[in-house]
Amino acid sequence: MKKYNLPYINQQTDTVILANGNFPANPLALSILKNCEYLVCCDGATNNLTKSGIDKVPDAIVGDCDSLSEENRRRFDGIIHRIPEQETNDLAKAVHFCVQHGRKRITILGATGKREDHTIANISLLCEYMDSAEVEMVTDYGVFVGTGSGSLFESYAGQQVSLFCIDSCTVTSHNLTYPIENRVFTNWWQATLNESTGNEFQIDTDGRMIIYRAF
User: Fold this and answer.
1) CA geometry: angle at 55 spanning 114 and 39, to 5°?
2) What DSSP element (H or E) covers 184?
3) How far apart are alpha carbons 57 and 88 in whole angstroms?
């Protein structure tokens, strides 16, 4: 059974994708950005990074490049990977780029905020990546991961937890304040706003789900 640990300050992360939502402000998220081994920016996120004052430059810039400034287009010309097709968004393009280059342990930052439709799409895409990579999305407020089977989640007593069913699937929980037993959820809101009772909880499911743990 797979276990999903919580991110922590000074975590040495293999690969970070910085998306073009709200730039990270939480100290934990900023620590992950500063300490990653390899950084991929969705094209417009490069503008946010260069304005942030953080001493970090991308190793690759991926996207359709419609929001990359002319200055950064010239500055980073040698690491830009333009993918013009419009069937996927820039975040999905960046994840596929990483997987194609053998980088399959990925933390996504900056994927929420600004336009709500982008936020919803970016979160739901976590379930599309499960078969090809280990991907987590860290925000200023918590962490999202996708799962499709029985899984353990590192936690702590009182941590706020929400479950989102992408598929209509059967769910059973262990160590949550409001127990779930062989329940089928048909809408995203139905399994939200729960709480962990200890240092880990377990979710058993036969379909794709997104698990959120608040900081």
Assistant:
1) 65
2) strand 183-184
3) 25
The full set of domain ranges for the chain reads 7-140, 148-214
3-state secondary structure of 155: coil
Residues found in the chain: 215
Q: Domain 148-214: which topology?
A: Jelly Rolls (2.60.120)
Q: What rounded mean pLDDT belongs to the chain?
A: 94
DSSP-assigned letter for residue 25: -
Q: How many CB atoms lie within 10 A of CB 168?
A: 10
Of the listed ranges 1-10, 13-22, 78-87, the one predicted with least confidence: 78-87
Q: CB of 80 within 8 A of CB of 61? A: yes
Beta strand 38-42 with 15-18 is parallel
**φ and ψ at residue 198, rounded to 5 degrees:** -165, -155
Rounded to two decimals, the pTM is 0.95
Query: What fold characterizes domain 7-140?
Result: Rossmann fold (3.40.50)
Closest Cα to residue 137, out of 166, 110, 99, 164?
Answer: 110
Q: In this predicted model, what pLDDT tens digit does every residue of 39-61 receive, in sequence order? A: 999 988 999 999 999 999 999 99
> With contact defined as beta carbons under 8 Å apart, do 29 and 140 qualify?
yes
d(CA 215, CA 177): 17
Contact 108, 91 (CB under 8 A): yes
